[in-house]
Design goal:
Keywords: Membrane, Transmembrane, Transmembrane helix. This is O-antigen ligase-like membrane protein. This protein has one domain. Helices cover 68% and strands 1% of the residues. It has a two-stranded antiparallel sheet with strand order 1-2.
Length: 448
């Protein structure tokens, strides 16, 4: 058992009643983090899909109190600096492109004012930065890693109960907690769809396993068994092909990372990765391929995802600095026909499909609702151009450098980074929670 670095400070005022309050507050925040289909979305739009938006006044008040007390910014990190610089850049480029549209006589897209849209989208980024700062502050306030473990364990145990309840009551599982009342036939926890749940399961499971090092032998073994059961439970019931594909890619990268057999641990990890790949191929590959084929033949999601990515690439090719968070609406309309043309040729040459179903993509020409790239990485690249690519490179390099020695944080981080290609980032707060945790945990480890 590893020594908890804070146990020597049990009587320093950071434990007892205060610690219990901090722990309860952290559990509350962790629950809000995974709740990503909040009915408030029906009132204020997509930013209300997560209840974290309701905490914005609290985050601002906390920052003001810290600044007033210390006269300087506290609990800074490279992650926060990267986000801050990127937000400043996005603000400047957004104003420039909205002004350019105004000078051309374009003030809105549909019912959406371009300047208002720019401000609303920038709010996502500011909220992410404040969330990261708040979580890192809270991690620092909780003195014991065992208390941190208990907080994450409580939330994952609740998620397991929710998953079981969903399976028992599909397709109308937990309907009052969701923004829509339509039947849903897959496990989605407290999110809007199954494709967005994978990062939640991986992030929370990885953090629990990492913090298990501070438990005693029997408790650690039980913790590993619980997490393995929870993860496998989700793996076998999820209907998300994107999750399964990213798991396979993560296994491949992890195998490459641990090819150095000079360390016995690497050999054992490689065997585990090989076993996981065998499990995937034998149990999931046929289902994934069948689902992809069915999606291509009968549905629009694959066309929409690929089409929006092509729109983002076309936009950046013509505007390498990005187009900001407001004027990007205009470029969806401008490049949608070209994207459909490229896809039509691709699917005909590759699969022999003569006509693709681009109905959902064509709707972007007629509406301002939910217009965006179906990929967090490419959406942010459309916003910020080359600067966004630099941001992601610096972010990934910093986090991989911190997590490279951890046999649990490293593969989980690879999974999350690959997931950026498939999920939106604006309300996926568990991703930013994981980034904040890696920064906190590896810094504390270096200090102790």
């Amino acid at each position: 058992m590893r020594k908890d670095p804070a146990m020597s400070g049990v009587m320093d005022g950071k434990t007892g009643g205060n610690q219990l309050l901090w722990a309860l507050y952290l559990v509350f925040l962790l629950l809000l983090t995974v709740y990503q289909d909040f009915p408030l979305v029906n009132v204020i739009g997509e930013i209300g899909r997560s209840p974290i938006i309701l905490l914005l006044p609290l985050f601002v008040a906390c920052e003001a109190a810290l600044l007033a007390k210390h006269k300087r910014v506290m609990h800074g990190s490279k992650l926060q600096r990267y986000l801050l610089v990127f937000i400043v850049y996005l603000s400047l480029i957004s104003v420039a492109y909205v002004l350019a549209q105004f000078l051309q006589g374009s003030y809105s897209f549909g019912q959406e004012n371009l300047l208002g849209k720019a401000v609303k989208v920038l709010t996502y980024f500011v909220l992410i930065l404040l969330y990261v700062r708040h979580m890192q502050l809270l991690f620092a306030k909780i003195a014991s890693r065992r208390v941190l473990y208990a907080c994450f364990f409580a939330v994952v145990a609740l998620l397991a109960v929710i998953m079981a309840a969903e399976l028992a009551s599909i397709p109308n599982a937990l309907a009052p907690l969701h923004a829509g009342s339509q039947p849903y036939w897959r496990v989605r926890l407290l999110t809007s769809e199954s494709s967005t749940t994978g990062t939640i399961v991986v992030v929370y499971s990885a953090i629990i396993v990492y913090l298990s090092r501070y438990l005693s032998g029997p408790a650690k073994a039980l913790s590993f068994a619980f997490v393995a059961g929870f993860f496998l439970f989700y793996l076998f019931v999820t209907g998300s092909k994107g999750f399964l594909i990213v798991v396979l890619l993560t296994i491949v990268v992890t195998m490459a990372k641990f090819l150095d057999f000079r360390k016995k641990r690497n050999f054992l990890l490689l065997l585990a990765a090989a076993g996981a790949m065998y499990l995937f191929v034998t149990h999931f590959s046929a289902g994934v391929l069948g689902s992809l084929s069915n999606d291509i033949e009968n549905y629009t999601s694959s066309y929409t995802r690929m089409g929006t990515i092509l729109i983002a690439l076309a936009t950046v090719a013509h505007h390498p600095l990005g187009v900001g968070t407001g004027a990007y609406l205009m470029y969806f309309n401008q490049y949608v026909d070209g994207a459909i043309g490229v896809m039509s040729r691709f699917y005909y040459d590759t699969f022999g499909i003569g006509q693709i179903n681009a109905g959902e993509l064509l709707q972007y020409s007629d509406t301002d609702r939910n217009v965006g790239v179906k990929s967090g990485f490419f959406q942010w690249v459309m916003f910020g151009g080359i600067a966004a690519v630099v941001f992601f490179y610096q972010l990934a390099a910093n986090l991989l450098g911190k997590a490279k020695t951890s046999s649990i944080l490293f593969p989980a981080l690879i999974f999350v980074l690959l997931s950026l290609l498939f999920v939106a980032l604006e309300i996926k707060y568990e991703i930013w929670l994981f980034f904040a945790f890696i920064s906190y945990a590896t810094t504390r480890r270096a200090e102790t």
